[in-house]
Amino acid sequence: MIPYTVNIKLAARTLTGTLNLQNKTAVDWGWQGLIAQGCHSSILIIDPKTAQTIQVLERHKANVVKVKWSRENYYHNLSSPYCLRLASGDASGKIIVWDVVSGTAHCEIQEHSKPIGDLEWLWNQDASRDLLLAVHPPNYIVLWNGDTGTKLWKKSYAENILSFSFDPFDPSNMALLTSEGIVFITDFSYSKPPGSAGKKVYIASPHASPAHTKPAPATAPAPTGAKKALNKVKVLITNEKPTAEAVTLNDCLQLSYLPSKRNHMLLLYPREILILDLELSQTVGVVAIERSGVPFIQVIPCAQRDALYCLHENGCITLRVCRSTVATEESVQELVYDLRSQCDAIRVTKTVRPYRMVICPVNENKAALMVSDGRAMLWELRAHTGKAANPSSGLSPLYSPVSFCGAPLGPNQKKIQDLSLNSMIGQTLIAGETLPTSSHQQEVQLKFLLTGLLSGLPLPPFAIRMCPPLTTKNINHYQPLLAVGTSNGSVLVYNLTSGLLHKELSVHSCEVRGIEWVSLTSFLSFATSAPNNMGLVRNELQHVDLPTGRCFAFRGERGNDEPPIEMIKVSHLKQYLVVVFRDKPLELWDIRTGTLLREMAKNFPTVTALEWSPSHNLKSLKKKQMAAREAMARQTVSDAEQSSVESSVISLLQDAESKSETSQAISAREHFVFTDTDGQVYHITVEGNTVKDGARIPPDGSMGSIACIAWKGDTLVLGDVDGNLNFWDLKARLSRGIPTHRGWVKKIRFAPGKGNQKLLVMYTDGAEVWDTKEVQMVSSMRIGRNVNYRILDIDWCTSDKVVLASDDGCIRVLEMAMKSASYRMDEQDLTDPVWCPYLLLPRAALTLKAFLLLQPWSGTFTMDVTQVDYSEKDEIKGLIQEQLNSLSKLFGDESDLHFWTVASHYIQSFAQARQLTVSAAEGQAQSEGVQPSPQSHLDICHDVLCETSYFQKFQLDRVHLQEVKRSSYEHTKKCADQLLLLGQTDRAVQLLLETSADNPSYYCDSLKACLVTTITSSGPSQSTIKLVATNMIANGKLAEGVQLLCLIDKAADACRYLQTYGEWNRAAWLAKVRLNPAESSDVLKRWAEHLCSPQVNHKSKAILVLLSLGCFYKVGEMLHSFKSLCCGISLTHCAHKLIEAAFLDYARLLRTLGLREGAALWASRAGSAGEQLMEELFQGEGGIPEAILGEEVVELGLESKE
């Protein structure tokens, strides 16, 4: 059972239900660790660790179609703190940028009135982190400033844009998926709109493929059959528009760049995933589904490993990992993605189908599946060591990684698995690599585990009823429970403190029409089946006990073939129950005994509205009983004993006895009033089992047919079908009629609490709150005016909050003003604590980070923050790299995570390389000439940051695959060019000689083949070729000139020319594949300088490049120059080049956060400049503590000199 606290002030909240079809694509899992999901016009914020909704954002008027968390790749400090920022777009074209913690909107953006097509925050530059790119249908892309809402630029295209994808390796490249094909843009920039219309390519639909027309051969295993068939279909991308017959429908569902490999893209079709190599515009891999397989809906490519998460139409999530090309003997034909794990499917029905999945961007080992009925299923990928269960499956084994954070994993080390995808499985091996033979590399199996489930409300309609109100008597065990009756006959009970489902009870077999509580833990609910041809139904009236879940039919055998129950009303003391039928006299029951007191006569008037009176004679009855008991007590206790027994004890005994008596015997007198079809008011008294008819009040001429009555204290209110409210003051004997002009008054309810005379009124088109003392309206809501949903049922949940059920499947707890508003996240009562540093105040979040980051001020590392008195003594010290890496994951710092992945890897590998060459003299050339020789290498998703040897192998592997897949002269020419640049001259000559004689380039290619084979290193030929190459480059033939320079081993010059002409990425690629470490280092350093220039402003990338070259000192300086102190200090602590100014600034930062002990430590290392700060820190305390001055600086045996 959920633990609860008595919380009289309930937070305003929204309980959400099923999703709308337009919400299908509105889900995103951010680096902040939270999931945002659109539900109708609201946005839920879900914490996947504890599976609870921690915020609901309400401001959109239309259905939400897209949500996107902002990226966290910037340096956080007090001026740019951790914040939860979310952009959402709706079906009316409005974009709202939210501050999620406070639930308020930063800005609202409106351009057109069509649904937003796609949204993305620009992550790839250091200039601003507020830039938001949006697709406004049909064919515009607009760049907005997401902080101010100003439009920076707008660009239109010829076709309708469906979605877009950014190249994760090159921010100037993006691809638009349009209704006809793909548009590639190569000049995207945040400063101005793209100049060109982009390069258009058309997709020939893969449905022409024989995989769908002929079944796979029965003898061969199914996958190979499908693969053979697919190999016949080579060209999928054409520059000509396909004929109308060839492509009837472009059913491409999705396009995304692969974040794990540069220049690769995937296209998703219902029955296959195509992997394209964009240099060739050619498919190099196909994941096809057999005929009996379940089609795809969505695929998410991973960045940490070459793997794909696929979602299928039955709600099954599968993980496919790229097969290592090492294990296969025959030459590789294409990229193959093997199915490694899958989770259970869901039961798909007409209303229940999977919509979208999202995966955790930080660790890539958790997935969330959003189902149309409002469920969110949280799956986690787990790795366990062991051999495959069925070795006959023919899959090559998956191995665990060799190292973690650059440090090799020893056989006796604890498993660091399940941290993230790249700590579960090793890298995909490529041709030319040896299989690791190390004994501790274990085979791993992957499996999905369901770790959380969030379920929403079922489909409307709902009947809601709040439990009896909080009083001084029940305060110790009160729970604010809301019962919700649903259309399928079950009753859901929600605890409104936490907003979580408390119990779900299957009570009825048909739609629940109404609920009335008879105590804090039990209620009555009734349901009516569909009428038969006589108009009669089956009535179900059930009594439900919450703690045990026991249900029983309250009316016993009655209920078959009778007119439907219209309403049930429970008296104020919960003694009696009135059941009102449509065409049958009412029944009066005793709730305590479950007996029928009276079934009214046939001539009893038809009841249109009924209400119990709050007045009763329980107090006077109790007084009489007390008097009788006291008389009894006086007689039994003799005078002598009387004096010894305390009179208070007697009164306690009497009290207890009288209480037990009232619960059994006393039947207080209660009354109810009702109206008939003519509007006449009847008054009836019930006492025990006697029922008396009282006075009758003639109808009020100004009122129509009375629809409902409410009674509290001396005020009686009647509402009619024409929208009139009649307020009766029973004490003063006055009545006031007020026409609201809002049509039928469906329900009226008084608010709980003594003397609280507020009244909630429900109409067909909305609701109002009235103050019956002043007889005036307090607040109003109307469909179409301030809300876009219809209200189905109403109730009060506390004396100042109302609860409304609406037809968009939500139940909202609102303030009395009935304004839909998001709540502040920090005001909530959550059942489970949520780890999210973004919810802390900026100062607290940064203090926590500084505390967890580095604790070198003492001998042990602690996670116990309670021991750290902000300004007092701490006893702590840091484990360096693993912790920094894990910390950036914990905080979701994207840039920090990339930084530490690269930094820790290269610090380790340079340290190893230095140990091998320790005897050599130290010096610049030595330190940077040493190429790291680690046990493992960075995966190819780091592209040019990888080790040179691995990068070269990968490029050769790729060209080999391109060669196998080429299908036209254009492709062959591209392959030959690549081979020449890679230095594979023999293979290039073979390809050049393949050119057919009728090709216009035949002569040129033949001569080129001759030239390549005859090049000698003699001086004259070299100088001639160099001259020709420079002339070519000068006359605009850059690629050809570079090729010639590579032929005569002048690749360094080629790189310089490429950089001069702005081809920076190409130059970096060439340097990695052709130059020795020293020359390559020069080229990459020039590139880093270019990245730092104000025009490019991509310093974070420059830092990663310098890290891969081992220039740790330079990186430390740069980090300090643009104030990224946390990374800078940790790095200088790791690579141990102490920069005094950086230490001083970091000490000041810690001082502002209140970590005085830490500030003192860094100040003591900052030399003379730090002494002044030390004095300020400890002034008035009689000098600086010994412990700090005596602190020895720990050496890491690592001085990478520049």
UniProtKB/TrEMBL annotation:
One of its GO terms (cellular component) is Golgi apparatus. Keywords: Cell projection, Cytoplasm, Cytoplasmic vesicle, Cytoskeleton, Golgi apparatus, Nucleus, Phosphoprotein, Repeat, WD repeat. Gene3D superfamilies: YVTN repeat-like/Quinoprotein amine dehydrogenase (2.130.10.10). Residues 479-819 form the WDR11 second beta-propeller domain. Residues 966-1114 form the WDR11 TPR domain. Residues 22-318 form the WDR11 first beta-propeller domain. Signal peptide: none annotated. InterPro entries: Beta-prop_WDR11_1st (IPR057852), Beta-prop_WDR11_2nd (IPR057853), Quinoprotein_ADH-like_sf (IPR011047), TPR_WDR11 (IPR057854), WD40/YVTN_repeat-like_dom_sf (IPR015943), WD40_repeat_dom_sf (IPR036322), WD40_rpt (IPR001680), WDR11 (IPR039694). The keyword Nucleus applies. One of its GO terms (biological process) is animal organ development. It is found in: Cytoplasm, Cytoskeleton, Cilium axoneme; Cytoplasm, Cytoskeleton, Cilium basal body; Cytoplasmic vesicle; Golgi apparatus, trans-Golgi network. It comes from the Eukaryota. Coiled coil: none annotated. Transmembrane segments: none annotated. This is WD repeat-containing protein 11. The lineage of its organism: Eukaryota, Metazoa, Chordata, Craniata, Vertebrata.
